[in-house]
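Researcher: Good morning. I'm working through a list of sequences from a screen, and I'd like to move beyond sequence-only analysis. For each chain I'm collecting a predicted structure so we can compare shapes side by side. This is the next one on the list. No need for commentary yet; just the structure.
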Amino acid sequence: MRMHDMDVTLERPTETGAQVTICLLDGTEVPVRLRLLSYDGCEFESARSFAEGERISIRLYRMGSIRARITSQQTKIVEAEFLNDCPV
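Model: Good morning. Structure tokens for this chain:
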């Protein structure tokens, strides 16, 4: 069997774990739709408003969480940069 013939689909998450969530400092969890994930930050869609500079934790299904800071928001599109002092 050649590599491109293999079924490489990932296991589907359960419905409750399917979304990326943002965890606020007070423990509130906000479901979001991840649009872009890069080495330095991410972009997500949310109905909630975030303040520039607000610190959050981005929880990715089966991958853990990343601490970040909101850099901007335009309508429902939010940009965040990952914190460099985030321990592994």
